[in-house]
Amino acid sequence: MTEVNSELPIVAVVGRPNVGKSTLINRLIGRREAIIEDQPGVTRDRVKYEAQWNGRNFIVMDTGGWEPDPDPVSINAQVSASAEFAIREADLILFIIDISVGALDEEVALVNVIRKSGKPVILIGNKADSPEIELAIHELWQLGLGEPIPVSALHGRGSGDLLDLVVAALPERRAIEEFDQIRRVVLLGRPNVGKSSLLNSLAGETRAIVDSVAGTTRDPIDEELEFGGETWRFIDTAGIRKHAHQASGTEYYAMLRTETALERGEVAILVIDASEPIAEQDLRIMSKVVDSGRALVIAMNKWDLVDEDRREALEREKERELNQVEWAERINISAKTGWHKDRLAPALRRALEGWQMRIPTSKLNSFLGALISATPPPVRGGKQPKILFATQPSTCPPRFVIFASGFLEPSYRRFIERRLREEFGFAGTPVEVSVRIRT
After folding, report:
1. Given a cut of 90, is residue 103 above it in pLDDT?
2. CA 108/CA 92 separation, integer angstroms
3. How large is the average pLDDT for residues 155-172?
4. CA-based end-to-end distance of the chain
5. Alpha carbons 85 and 107: distance in angstroms, whole number
6. Which is higher by pLDDT, 117 or 172?
7. 49 with 183: CB under 8 angstroms?
8. Cβ pair 415, 409 in contact under 8 A
9. Residue 264: per-residue pLDDT
10. 3-state SS, residue 86
């Protein structure tokens, strides 16, 4: 997945559920990014993708299916509200109607919402999969939104002509080339631990749809937030379930996109439900972060639900289950109330500082010489390996290579890593120590 440029013009794709919005978006951006499945309501949040056509860059925003009068307490109400927010945010609206069904009462109601926004709109009759079906496009003139454009998102019919119209209707906007200043934070965790609630709490407004039903978020959501005195790009992700092979359809693709989002990030916030026992899924996600070499901060969420007995049990669980990532800072927070959310920004900065830290070779070998003199490596096969020198070839995460005359036991490598952390810090980041043997 590519990062989106917030200064590019935004094209919002709206319509009622299951008219083919995500399929059309994959066609427009030229790659399969948006999750599609033959059932309504797959897309829920506003998800942005960067596209290019005829030398023009722009953002395509996928939205959930809009409904005129959803149940106020249901997730559909949040999806519809999110779609209306996309209409207000967009520079151009692509209004999609299933041409094989025609304009329903829901579409007529959505026309009024679009007109009130005052934004330019292109009316699209999707699923025009054959010349016979395409004849029904004339019925859409009655909506009063101008000439309807027949398109088959599934087969690609008319997509090039549509992109020409989109580019011609887009306003000019200054593009920004540099994004390196904005740090990328990935929110990870199993379903229903409060990742989207935390994103909304940090933003101070609803950026991601939240519901008590597990698995609400499906597409990774990029949001730039002013938080802790600087701008961060937060990536909210779908919850990672127990095993990928147990997921199917929407859940399977959501998990693949979550793993891709982790590769894009620099630091991960692992959100754990403190009110429940630490689960196997939490440990598997933690291992994914370590294996990917990303910095890590652990957020113990839902602290407002933790009583005294649970606190004592949680301390024992953390000592037993989280001992492999003792270097990761742990913050007790409540996304619902906002308690201690201000502690996240300093923790993220410390983790990124350790993630990018480089130790000069002379200083590293001076430290290593003193360490070997005090605690030499254990004898192996009747011979004691001799450590020649060490170097740090890379950062993000810090990687150290030790050149030795023989094999170093894993326990001794862990000992070196522990002493490196005690001497230089490396808070919040995994550290890799490898050995190269020279005779």
Report:
1. no
2. 19
3. 87
4. 45
5. 17
6. 117
7. no
8. no
9. 81
10. helix
**Do 176 and 225 form a contact (C-beta atoms < 8 A)?**
no
Task: Report which residue type is found at 427.
Answer: A
CA–chain centroid gap for 243, Å, is 19
d(CA 172, CA 344): 37
Task: Give CA separation, 237 vs 21, 220, 261, 296, 311, in Å.
Answer: 20, 4, 7, 16, 28
| Cβ count within 10 A of residue 221 | 24
Q: Which of 210, 290, 214 lies closest to 247, judged by CA? A: 214
| Percent share of the chain, pLDDT over 70 | 81
Helix (H, G, I), strand (E, B) or coil at 77: helix
User: For residues 169 and 145, is the Cβ–Cβ distance under 8 A?
Assistant: no
- Distance between CA 121 and CA 124 in Å, rounded? 10
Strand partners, 233: 184, 224
Contact 6, 178 (CB under 8 A): no
Compute and round to an integer the Cα radius of gyration of the chain: 26
Task: Supply the pLDDT for residue 175.
Answer: 42
Q: Which range has the worst mean pLDDT, 155-164, 190-199, 208-217, 259-268?
A: 208-217
Reduced to 3 states (helix: H, G, I; strand: E, B; else coil), residue 35 is: coil
Q: What percent of the chain has pLDDT over 90?
A: 38
Closest Cα to residue 428, out of 291, 323, 328, 283?
A: 328
Annotate 283-319 with DSSP letters as a single string: HHHHHHHHHHT-EEEEEEE-GGG--HHHHHHHHHHHH
Sign of CA dihedral 173, 177, 178, 183: positive
CA atoms within 13 A on the CB side of 117: 20
What is the per-residue pLDDT for 243? 54
- Amino acid identity of residue 98, one-letter, is D
Q: Which amino acid is at 37?
A: E
C-alpha pair distances (Å), 211 with each of 71, 165, 245, 415, 428? 13, 37, 25, 45, 31
The owner of tokens 């790659």 is 31
Query: So what's the pLDDT on residue 1?
Result: 39
By mean pLDDT, which of 52-61, 65-74, 111-120 is the weakest? 65-74
| pLDDT of 41 higher than 60 | no
What DSSP string runs through 168-187? HHPPP-------TTSEEEEE
350 in Cβ contact with 329 (< 8 Å): yes
Residue bearing tokens 């692992």: 270
- Whose CA is closest to 400, among 434, 427, 369, 368? 434
Evaluate if residue 144 carries a pLDDT over 90: no
Contact 145, 97 (CB under 8 A): no
* From 83-92, 209-218, 311-320, 387-396, the region with the lowest mean pLDDT: 209-218
